[in-house]
Every structure is written in structure tokens, then in C-alpha cells.
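User: Just a sanity check before I run the rest of the batch. Below are the C-alpha cells for the first item. I only need the designed sequence back.
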């Protein structure tokens, strides 16, 4: 049951806030809530029409694409379908950096500079306009409402990017207070602060949690260890995003907080690509984002086959993202969700390409193959795996007993060698804690070995 205050916020205060920021979020969300119930065929037809309009706009107003189409002797009408996108090259960080000014539309409104966290290498610097922000916020808002929560319901946000935290000026603080959204600074999690955040959640009794799965997993495990009950607060859902959600994290969060976990997939660069509904379907933001799954050679893959996600965001005509390589690995589904929405789904999200490791013989393994060796050890409290090369893997381990003894070292080494190869060197370092990335995210597996 949505409270009167939440109704006022979602129907009056937030729409006013978006209007003042010159965002079309409200009207877009209303359209999305209608279109989600269309048939897959209707959605494909609408997406193709929008793709054609988008291509026409960027070839007329974005120097990079105007020149590209001329060089390839293509006309806008040559790209009518998703399949036709293969006529265009992929977009990556290096291309964006080298053509930054040429990627700006000559009719763009105000553009804001953003960057990714750079956790998998060099950060990407790019521009966002009101068009892109409006579509992204509307997609997130639609997905939030799937879970019977809305803007204005009490929310705890666990986030760690200095960009967001640096923007906590008086205006934003007032806005967050009005919208009943409280922040947990995820990049500075000392034991004292973890306990303080747990108490903050207990005092607030939020309807929803939003943020990194690693942070909520850590809060859940700490609460359980301290005997602090968290499943009596009335939390309806924990939205997790920006990191890979591991099965053990979902189980911990759901069990200890007493609420379902809703996975969200996307990024600051590529947008909100997919959201999970209460029936479990990982629905694509199909009206706004074209998703391709490609193999190592760049060829499109059918549903059921694992490959890299490539996105074309149709709300980026001011600074286009066309066939942008995300570096993430996933599988497209050809099934229909029990919820009745026509939106296509991802079958699975397997993580970033750097979340995979390569055995000495060249076999590509998911990082989970190493993670579960450590997860199954009762004395391991936290860890980080870095594959430096095919012949060297480093492991940082936080032991519950204070130090990593020889038995633990032998178990880890034998388990890793069984998967990576007997001649691979396994360096194990006993540490007091595992530091997060600069963004506040935790990365459990990082491979510096190219899998392409």
C-alpha cells in the first residue's frame, strides 16, 4: 500500500523536479508502462521505427556519423533493422576518446561530462544530455514500480562514486530528504561504519534498498554475525546494480533482510540495459536500447549462446552510443516471461570479460570456478583474485582466524591449480582487509589475460 506522502512525491514533487531540470521523464515513463504489455512483434516494429529516426538524426547532425556514412557510401535508409547495424563499426572507448568533439551533435542542448569508474582499465569520458537522462530515469522508475514501490517511499542507497557524493550540496540534500532517500557511502566501509549503517537501516525501516550487491551482502553478513535482526523492517525489495550479482550474495541478502533481490544490469556509459521483474525475468529496456550479442569475431549470436553485449542507445542522439562494446558477457533468451510483458529478456549475465580467467592450456573459465573454492572454506572471510598472466595468479585472503595458515594455503593452491594448470604459480597473500575500487565497488576476480 503506497502511502499518501509517496503519492504526493511521485505524482507531484518528482514530476515538478524533472520539469525544472527539463527532463521528459514522466511522459516517457507513462509510455513505457503501456508499451511493456505489447506483443514482441509490436515492440520490434516500434523499435525499428525509432532506430530509423535515430540513425537519420545522427547522420544529419553528428559529424562523426555524417562522415562515416559518407565514407562507407551508406544512406540513413540503409539501416532499417537491428541486422542492418552490422554495416556500421563498433564503438569503443578508444574511438570515443579519439573522436570526442566529432561525436557531439550540432543541435545538442546542454551536455554534462561523465566518466566511468575505470575499474576494468582506463575510464571512459563521455557526454550526457537531457534526452538520455530522461530515458534512463524513466526506465529505472518503471522497473521500480514493478515491485510495488515508488519514488517517495523510504529508500537506502549504497553507492560509492565520488561523483555522486561530491554532488551532495544543499539542493541535493533537500531533494533527497523530500524524496526520503538516504545515502550509505559505500567506498568507506570501516567496521564501525558498517555497524552504523546497519543501525541506520534499522532506524529508517526503508521500503527499498538500492546499490551494490557486495555492500548489502557485507551488511547482511555483519548483521548476522552480530546477531542483529534485519528481516523485521518491512523492506519490500533490494535493488542491486553496477556489479555482478553472485548467487550466494542473493541468498544472503534475501535471507537476512527478508526481502527479494531485484537485479539490475547496466552502466553509466551504456544506460540501464535490463531489470528483473518479480517473476524473475531479466527484461531488456527494449524501447530505448538495442542489444546485440556478438562472438569474438564480432558476428551476431542467436539466443542461447554466450557473447559480448553491444548496445545502441536510442536516447543518445546528442552524443551517440551506436554499437558500443560493453565488455560484458551475457546470453539472450528466446522465452516469454510469466509476468506477461512482451519485453525480451536476457537469459543470464555472466559478468565482464575481465571476470573470466584463462587456464594455462587456453581454456576460458568463469571466475566463479575459483570463487567457489574460497567460498567453500569456512575460515575465509574475504578475498580478491588477480590473474596476472597464464602462469601467475595472485590471491588476497582475509582469514577469520587472523592469518592464512599452511592448510588454507594448500587448499587454495591445489584448488586453483586443478582448474588453471599444475604449473601455474599461485601467490597467496594474507591481508587484514580487501580495499574496494575507487568507485566503492568490490571486484572479486580480475584477469589481465585477454580472452579474445
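Assistant: Here's the designed sequence for the first item:
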Amino acid at each position: 500500500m503506497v502511502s499518501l506522502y509517496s503519492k504526493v512525491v511521485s505524482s507531484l514533487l518528482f514530476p515538478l523536479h524533472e520539469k525544472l531540470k527539463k527532463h521528459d521523464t514522466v511522459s516517457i515513463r507513462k509510455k513505457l508502462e503501456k508499451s511493456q504489455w505489447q506483443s514482441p512483434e509490436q515492440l520490434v516494429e516500434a523499435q525499428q521505427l525509432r532506430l530509423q529516426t535515430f540513425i537519420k538524426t545522427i547522420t544529419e547532425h553528428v559529424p562523426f556519423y555524417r562522415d562515416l556514412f559518407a565514407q562507407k557510401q551508406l544512406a540513413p535508409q540503409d539501416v532499417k533493422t537491428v541486422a542492418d547495424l552490422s554495416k556500421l563499426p563498433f564503438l569503443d572507448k578508444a574511438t570515443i576518446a579519439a573522436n570526442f568533439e566529432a561525436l557531439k551533435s550540432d543541435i545538442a542542448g546542454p551536455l554534462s561530462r561523465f566518466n566511468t569508474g575505470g575499474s576494468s582499465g582506463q575510464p571512459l569520458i563521455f557526454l550526457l544530455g537531457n534526452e538520455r537522462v530522461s530515458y534512463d530515469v524513466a526506465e529505472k522508475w518503471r522497473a521500480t514500480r514493478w515491485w510495488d514501490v515508488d519514488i517517495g517511499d523510504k529508500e537506502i542507497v549504497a553507492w560509492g562514486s565520488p561523483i555522486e557524493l561530491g554532488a551532495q550540496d544543499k539542493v541535493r540534500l533537500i531533494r533527497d530528504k523530500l524524496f526520503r532517500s538516504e545515502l550509505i557511502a559505500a567506498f568507506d566501509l570501516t567496521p564501525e561504519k558498517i555497524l552504523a549503517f546497519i543501525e541506520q537501516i534499522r532506524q529508517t525501516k526503508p521500503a527499498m534498498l538500492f546499490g551494490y550487491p557486495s555492500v548489502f551482502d557485507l551488511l547482511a553478513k555483519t548483521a548476522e554475525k552480530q546477531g542483529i535482526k534485519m528481516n523485521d523492517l518491512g523492506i519490500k525489495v533490494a535493488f542491486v546494480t553496477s556489479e555482478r550479482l553472485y548467487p550466494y550474495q542473493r541468498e544472503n541478502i534475501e535471507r537476512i533482510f527478508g526481502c527479494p533481490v531485484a537485479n539490475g544490469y547496466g552502466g553509466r556509459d551504456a544506460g540501464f540495459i535490463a531489470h528483473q521483474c518479480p517473476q524473475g525475468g531479466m527484461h531488456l529496456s527494449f524501447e530505448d536500447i538495442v542489444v546485440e550479442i556478438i562472438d569474438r569475431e564480432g558476428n551476431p549470436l542467436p539466443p542461447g549462446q554466450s557473447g559480448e553485449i553491444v548496445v545502441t542507445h536510442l536516447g543518445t542522439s546528442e552524443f551517440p552510443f551506436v554499437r558500443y562494446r560493453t565488455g560484458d558477457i551475457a546470453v539472450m533468451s528466446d522465452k516469454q516471461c510469466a509476468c506477461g510483458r512482451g519485453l525480451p529478456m536476457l537469459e543470464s549475465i555472466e559478468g565482464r570479460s575481465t571476470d573470466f580467467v584463462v587456464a594455462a592450456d587456453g581454456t576460458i573459465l568463469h571466475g566463479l570456478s575459483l570463487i567457489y573454492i574460497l567460498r567453500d572454506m569456512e575460515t575465509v572471510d574475504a578475498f580478491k583474485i588477480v590473474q596476472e598472466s597464464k602462469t601467475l595468479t595472485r590471491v588476497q585472503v582475509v582469514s577469520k582466524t587472523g592469518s592464512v595458515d599452511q592448510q588454507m594455503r594448500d587448499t587454495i593452491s591445489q584448488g586453483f591449480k586443478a582448474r588453471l594448470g599444475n604449473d601455474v604459480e599461485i601467490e597467496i597473500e594474507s591481508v587484514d582487509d580487501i580495499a574496494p575500487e575507487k568507485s566503492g565497488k568490490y571486484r572479486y576476480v580480475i584477469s589481465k589475460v585477454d580472452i579474445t
